[in-house]
Amino acid sequence: MGTMDGKVAIVSGSGRGIGREIALKLASEGAAVVVNDLDAEPAEETAKDIEAAGGRAATCVGSVTDDGFAERFVATATDTFGGLDVIVNNAGYTWDTVIQKMTDEQWHTILDVHLTASFKILRAALPYIRNNPVDHHRKVVNISSTSGFYGNLGQVNYAAAKAGMIGLTKTLAKEWGRYKVNVNAVAFGFILTRMTEVTAADGATLTIDGREIKVGINPERAATAAKTIPLGRPGTPEEAAGAVYALCLQETNYVSGQCLVVDGARV
């Protein structure tokens, strides 16, 4: 018996990285998971891995910023698995530069993918949640960042979006308590993913939604990370997923409107 047997979850941005590990963890505990990614191949790979391990999965491929995506995402869960119990708003990426060099496109793109898309997914989910009461608590976990708490050089767009995720979380916790929904956030610090495994000096880029995005962290920050994190190292995607999983459990039914910081006690 898994801790999430019979539950249905949607996890945005779950074809790779932290999102993939969240999807795998929820599925390993019995949840049916709708996997989303911009690209079909990673979404299908994650779904196949879930099914190979004996779990249930479906895919909903596409950008979370596309018109109509939110409704399609929710419908994939309700039509395929007959329910919706867990929503994890994880999709996103960074597009960094200092404010004087940041374009309007950079600003709006990052706010759209992190904050506006999450708002639309939650708005699309409410009619189903309101009209289909259950005897357990439903769970929403919004992915924020320590940049949203404390700011970060070169990330005015990302920090603003992640701070907005905290405001969204706290407000919906008040609005959705009447529907037995716990709404919480997780703010990650330095987690090793494809966005952070290289340093900015390496010149690495990723093509995301048709844009060539520079990735990597400042070399000085990378070199001193182990010294500034009391646990002595960055976190892993599996550890990040564990924090999200904890907030999806029925044992956390009286935890709502909170933001759990997962940074190895760095701040």
Question: What distinguishing features does this structure have?
Answer:
267 residues; alpha/beta; 7-stranded parallel beta sheet
Largest sheet: 7 strands, parallel
Q: How many beta-strand segments?
A: 9
**What is the alpha-carbon Rg in Å?**
18 Å
Q: Could you give the order of strands across the largest sheet?
A: 3-2-1-4-5-6-9
Beta-strand share of residues:
15-25%
Distance between the termini: 37 Å
Given as residue ranges, the uncertain stretches (5+ residues, pLDDT < 50) are none
Count of DSSP-assigned helices: 8
What shape does the CA trace take?
globular
Supply the helix-strand structural class: alpha/beta
Residue share in helix: 40-55%
Average pLDDT, rounded to a whole number, is 94
Helix and strand succession? EHEHEHEHEHHEEEHHE
Assembly form of the protein: single chain
Structure description:
- The protein is α/β, with parallel strands linked by helices.
- Helices cover 42% and strands 16% of the residues.
- The protein contains 8 helices and 9 strands.
- The chain has helices at residues 17-28, 40-52, 69-81, 104-131, 146-150, 156-176, 219-228, 237-246, and strands at residues 8-11, 32-35, 56-59, 86-89, 138-145, 181-188, 205-208, 211-214, 259-262.
- The strands form 2 sheets. The protein has a 7-stranded parallel beta sheet with strand order 3-2-1-4-5-6-9, sandwiched between helices. A two-stranded antiparallel ribbon has the order 7-8.
- Strand 2 (32-35), helix 2 and strand 3 form a beta-alpha-beta unit.
- Helix 1 packs across helix 8 (237-246) and helix 3 (69-81) packs parallel to helix 4.
- The N and C termini lie far apart (37 Å).
- The model has no long low-confidence stretch (mean pLDDT 94).
